Amino acid sequence: MTIDRDMKAAIAVSRFGLGARPGELDLARTDPEGFLAAQIRREGADQPQADPESSVQRYVQIRDYQMQRREARQEGDPQSASEKSDPVKDAQRMIRQTGAKDFLARAQLGASTPDGFRERWTLFWANHFTVSATKLITATLVGPFEQEAIRPNVFGRFEDLLVASSTHPAMLVYLDQAQSVGPDTRAADFMARRSGKQAGLNENLAREILELHTVGVDAGYTQGDVTEFARALTGYSIGGPRQGEKEGVFVFRDIAHEPGRRTIMGRTYDQEGGRQALAVMKDLAASPHTAGHIARKLAVHFVADDPPPALVERLKGAYLSSNGDLAHVARTLVSAPEAWDPAARKFKTPYEFLISSYRATGAAPQDLREVGPIMTGLGQKPFAAPSPKGWADEASVWCAPDAVVKRMAWSEAFA
After folding, report:
1. What count of Cα atoms within 13 Å lies in the side-chain half-sphere of residue 270?
2. Average pLDDT value over all residues in the chain
3. H/E element holding 78?
4. Is the pTM of this model over 0.70?
């Protein structure tokens, strides 16, 4: 099917991007595919003009709150405990002062960037490796997680993106990996002697890496594979207040790492210490199952809820032939003929809908109150995906009659 340039320009800025800004269709019309390909760059995505505090600074700040709370309780001063440690007030203040600023900065970047495909590609990966503001500490770390782990790596090797996200403090806290201890370790013995409690192995991160981030639920792994991977991941943690410069950053705690070889999905890993989990992640990143899982997710996100099998195979082949080079996969996506089918098969998420509206007017939100309430009302509360699976891409989730009415009402007010 032959598609004229006007149609291809419209597809380029809407299907692949976040909607057209004034004059953007003219830029895309000359060479729609080239317009998109030019936005792919090795140095990664653009950074929002957000609060300059790093994840380390925020993690330490939250730890200080928690320490104040414990101290106030130990001193038996109810008034002091209330003033220093009210978790509701702390959460509200931290979310308002940090998480809200981060989300607004991201929305402003989305509304104003001339590189809509680059930002859309980045949002896909931020959702793929979801960290949600469901805890006090993760509410303040979602923004830095995207800025530090996701954005620099979105056009690099998938393995690097996997490791960066899996070792970031936000992910380690969100999926409770920081507190996972091998049962046959010195750390477990110390905890048993000090508190009488048995140290626990936490499988959350191992399970989500397998199910959501890499090979996918249909890859044939077993519960035993999840448990073995969780043992390999023991020791992956965050530096505490006694560790000086390492406080709030990723550390490997050898005393918490379960010793011994691990067998995961038919492969045996003899590596010692932190290298063991890295070796597992390397193999997972290279797996054809991972290539297929990611290829389908990309095709669903950008093209159709039921994507063309030829497109999925094309993306899978690009991933495998390039050893997970995401820049190559992105170029393959924008050059694939199946991706340019003019039939409209996608429905915007609330975030995409609001951002594309701002882009159409050449404006950007100036306060979170302009976008936060309507997004929450439409079911996509800022930085608060309901589970590690992230936000859904399928139209059925977003196009219920009530949601469409709310979009129409907001559109009328916005206009």
Report:
1. 0
2. 91
3. helix 78-85
4. yes
